[in-house]
Write a structure and sequence with these properties.
The structure holds 2 protein chains of 2 kinds. Chain A is mainly α. Chain A contains 11 helices and no strands. Chain A has one domain. In chain B, 42% of the residues are buried. Chain B is an alpha/beta fold. The chains are: A mainly alpha, B alpha/beta. At the A-B interface, helix 1 and helix 4 of A face helix 2, strand 6 and helix 3 of B.
């Protein structure tokens, strides 16, 4: 039996979908606010409003908090991604793609790529604003590269997790509320306050959840210091979540296309 | 010369969680012809279209589209069909033109042809002026037209339309009808589902009536209406009962019916003459009204 009548082109299909999702990001008012205005507001809030009351052991609070703000913002970005995926799955456009010789899962790649771009823009904005507020990292080029690498990895992991949530939920509201747990993780980590100031029962949780090693590694690199094992633990967490979320998304995608 | 059908469905069956949705459906459509699948909600119309357009898998039966088997060669089927679903599948954040351009690229139309093909589609479906507005700001009729424009961009040989005019105003409905008729005239085979006998009557060369997962009647619109008869006289009595009397379509026939009614003792609150509806076809074919009509009568 010949299959020469069509050849699927996942790469070019994905490019089209990325273009679509990036256009969405620009036009969707919510995602613009979440991606641009909110990160700056949160940074100002934490450094100017809360910063004075928080003792981080001699480190300027703005230097302490920048990694946390970057990760927190990727959580907001994730909710946008989850909502976009749910919308596509429920509003008929994916059914149309499936009746074409299009690699349907390219839709997911599009949303994840747009999410990555959105988050990189937010991250750049946070860093620039932080510098204005007195952020003076001691990192050299290699350390900056390491920070950028771990941010990209973390955002990719969160974006695929969000895509999975989007495939799992049946309504946009559910997608929005389910992705909120991603927003919660940074608060219970060393992102905003040192773990030693938390109640005893919370400390082991905070120390062993994925956000803490990522924060510690970023903080270490930004201050130009040695990060020890945190770098590898951070990468391991991100890669682990990424692989689980991609596999989960693939399974959910197949489930939703069956029957 | 007889035409070979481009869509052939034999013994199609489908159940969901033990509930039988399709129970042996046979259909065929030739190129350039329009087949209307007429049935109430829940009769299996959308499931049928879903299977024919490769979205769902049949439990049993054989479905071939342009010679491709929907189960064994879904990509072959996809290369010749287009589906316009019950819910418009346009991207609301993109403009009409961007929607079409995206689909053109996904269909791998040659890059230099895309701009002109897109412009042609826009003008053909009366969307040139709205081309650079976001589809989210379109009216229901405009969205449907954009949906159709997207659907035929790839020049499909078979077009599936699932309730293409549900929720549209009469003007938009006629525009969609005109577009569908034009496509059929160019040789596209069309399968459309509808709840409206009038729509089937206006558009279709043949009508298949689907009820509880079975085709209970098939024929030309004229043949189908002959089953029900011509216009009906609908009489509502003071006690709330409703009676439908079929006419033979002539004035003497109508006079005779009215004379009969006048001779009766019962008090009549209203008399109306109307063409047979979908509900009448159902009443005639199944011996029971559609669920919606039954509710209406209880409420009356």
């Amino acid at each position: 039996m010949t299959t020469a009548y069509v050849r699927r082109r996942p790469v070019s299909d994905s490019m089209v979908m990325v273009g679509r999702s990036v256009r969405h990001a620009w036009r969707n008012g919510d995602s613009l606010v979440l991606g641009v205005v909110l990160p700056v507001m949160i940074l100002v809030l934490f450094t100017v409003v809360f910063g004075g009351a928080l003792d981080t052991g001699g480190v300027d609070y703005v230097d302490y908090v920048v990694p946390g703000i970057i990760l927190l913002c990727s959580g907001y970005g994730a909710s946008t991604t989850a909502i976009s995926v749910t919308k596509d799955m429920t509003e008929g456009i994916v059914d149309r793609f499936r009746t074409m010789t299009v690699t349907g899962s390219a839709v997911l790649f599009g949303h994840v790529a747009a999410s990555l771009l959105r988050n990189l823009v937010s991250t750049a904005l946070v860093v620039v604003t932080a510098v204005v507020l007195g952020f003076r990292p001691a990192a050299g080029p290699v350390e900056w590269l390491a920070v950028a690498g771990v941010v990209v990895l973390f955002v990719l992991a969160m974006s695929w997790l969000a895509a999975m949530v989007g495939l799992l939920t049946k309504t946009v509201d559910a997608a929005a509320s389910m992705s909120f747990f991603m927003l919660f993780l940074p608060y219970a980590s060393s992102a905003f306050v040192p773990i030693e100031t938390m109640p005893g029962w919370l400390q082991p949780v905070a120390r062993h959840q994925p956000v803490t090693p990522v924060i510690e590694a970023m903080r270490g690199w930004l201050s130009g210091g040695d990060v020890g094992g945190d770098g590898w633990v951070a990468v391991a967490w991100c890669v682990g979540i990424l692989v689980a979320a991609v596999v989960g998304s693939a399974l959910l995608w197949r489930r939703s296309t069956r029957d | 010369m007889t035409l070979t059908p481009i869509v052939e469905v034999v013994g199609l069956r489908k159940s969901y969680r033990g509930l039988r949705v399709l129970d042996g459906v046979d259909l065929s459509i030739e190129a350039g012809r329009i087949l209307a699948l007429l049935g109430p909600n829940g009769s299996g119309k959308t499931t049928t279209v879903g299977i024919l357009s490769t979205l769902r898998r049949p439990d049993a039966g054989r479905v071939r589209v342009a010679g491709f088997d929907v189960v064994a060669q879904p990509d072959g089927v996809r290369s010749v069909i287009s589906l316009t679903g019950q819910f418009t599948a346009v991207d609301e954040l993109l403009t009409g033109r961007e929607n079409l351009r995206m689909m053109a690229r996904l269909h791998r139309l040659p890059g230099r042809e895309i701009a002109s093909r897109v412009a042609d589609s826009l003008s053909r479906f009366g969307l040139t002026e709205a081309a650079d507005r976001r589809a989210g700001s379109y009216s229901g009729g405009m969205r449907r037209r954009l949906d159709l424009a997207i659907g035929v961009l790839s020049k499909p040989r078979v077009l599936f339309l699932d309730e293409p005019t549900t929720g549209l105003d009469p003007h938009s409905r006629r525009e969609v009808w005109r577009a569908v008729t034009e496509l059929a005239a160019q040789g596209v085979a069309v399968l459309l589902t509808t709840q409206y006998l009038e729509e089937a009557d206006q558009l279709a060369d043949r009508v298949a009536v689907l009820n509880d997962g079975r085709i209970i009647a098939e024929g030309t619109p004229a043949e189908l209406k002959r089953l029900v008869g011509a216009d009906l006289v609908e009489v509502r009595y003071a006690d709330g009962t409703l009676r439908r009397v079929p006419t033979d379509g002539t004035i003497p026939g109508l006079q005779a019916i009215l004379a009969d009614l006048a001779a009766q003792d019962a008090r009549v609150t209203s008399v109306a003459v109307r063409p047979p509806s979908m509900d009448d076809v159902f009443l005639q074919l199944t011996g029971r009204p559609t669920a919606a009509a039954a509710r209406e009568e209880v409420a009356a």
